[in-house]
Write a structure and sequence with these properties.
Elements (H helix, E strand, L loop, with lengths): L4 H12 L1 H6 L1 H21 L2 H14 L6 E3 H8 L3 H9 L14 E3 H9 L6 H4 L10 H12 L4
Antiparallel strand pairs: 1-2
Amino acid sequence: MEFSSNEILKLIERASGIPDFLSKKTDIELLLGKFQSVEEYLARFGSLDELVTFFKRIEEKMFMLKTFLTTEEASKFVGVSVFTLREAVKKMQLPVYTPPGKGYLFFREDLEEWLGRFRNPSREELEGDANVPVLSPSELFTKHDRLSQKQI
């Protein structure tokens, strides 16, 4: 196989950058570490498609960390239809924010409180067992948040 002088010059140009690249040992080690992390994830999930699907599911749930939720996010958060939320707003049963140029925005704590109004007591509560603590939704979520952060 023959090379033209231009091709040879291009190869020499590319090769001249190799010593600089090799001298950056920390960059290479960092790159290798990233490849190892990817390999570990692939080993855990079996394929790149499964890994991508996993991250997409996480991304879809990230809205739950927001303070204000759109109608669609609020619907998923409390597990009711968009229609049900809009009806609750229309009947003034659920507070809502309407910033200019946006649809409804729901304060997450308002949604928790609204959902708590539909709580049905347990048999023990109905029978008057005083040892059963009754927590409001906000107390329940706060307690869960604290437990997940291991502050209790």
